[in-house]
């Protein structure tokens, strides 16, 4: 129950966090790219029915810093799962994953990047992953403080 309340509060906070003006520039001009550890989210039929919400905390970042992270999706359901699509709340997050079924008991990795260029202050971004034959998305929040 507490997780659902946090998701509701986080979604409300997300409405107040807009992306700053962004202009693309060559990768060679990017200030720094930081790779972080892998976090695992267990996904089961019950959890998808009730809703899954998790937050990735990045702490303090410098403006212009890019964080690359991997998220492991562990299939704890009784059959294969397929991520059909994803939605991000901001162009500052990019997502890449294999478009193939995740067998029961297996896992798959989602690679994503958070670019803090043009962002200032506390930020919370949302990524939603929609699975075949499931109504409720997996919601992953990215939280960071941009200096």
Your description of this structure?
The protein is mainly beta and 147 residues long. The protein is built from two helices and eight strands, in the order H-E-H-E-E-E-E-E-E-E. A hairpin with a 6-residue loop joins strand 7 (121-131) and strand 8 (138-146). It is elongated, with a radius of gyration of 16 Å.
Low-pLDDT stretches: 5-30
- Which shape, going by the Cα principal axes? elongated
Radius of gyration: 16 Å
**Strands in their spatial order, largest beta sheet:** 1-3-6-5
Measured as a percent range, the helix fraction is: 10-25%
How are the SSEs ordered, and which strands pair?
Blueprint: H1 2-15, E1 32-43, H2 45-50, E2 52-61, E3 65-75, E4 83-88, E5 93-96, E6 107-115, E7 121-131, E8 138-146
Parallel strand pairs: 1-3, 2-8
Antiparallel strand pairs: 3-6, 4-7, 5-6, 7-8
Can you give me a brief rundown of this structure?
This protein has 147 residues and is mainly beta.
Name a few traits of the molecule.
147 residues; mainly beta; 14% helix; elongated
């Amino acid at each position: 129950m507490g997780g659902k309340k946090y998701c509701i509060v986080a979604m409300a906070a997300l409405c107040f966090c807009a992306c700053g003006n962004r202009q693309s520039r060559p990768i060679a001009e990017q200030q720094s790219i930081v790779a972080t550890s892998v976090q695992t989210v267990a996904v089961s039929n019950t959890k998808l029915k009730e809703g899954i919400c998790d937050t990735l905390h990045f702490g303090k970042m410098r403006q212009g810093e890019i964080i690359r992270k991997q998220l492991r999706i562990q299939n704890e359901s009784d059959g294969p799962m397929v991520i059909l699509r994803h939605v991000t709340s901001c162009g500052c997050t990019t997502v890449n994953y294999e478009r193939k079924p995740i067998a029961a008991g297996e896992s798959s990795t989602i690679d994503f990047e958070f670019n803090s260029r043009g962002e200032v202050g506390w930020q919370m971004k949302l990524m939603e992953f929609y699975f075949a034959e499931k109504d409720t998305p997996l919601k992953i929040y990215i939280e960071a403080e941009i200096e």
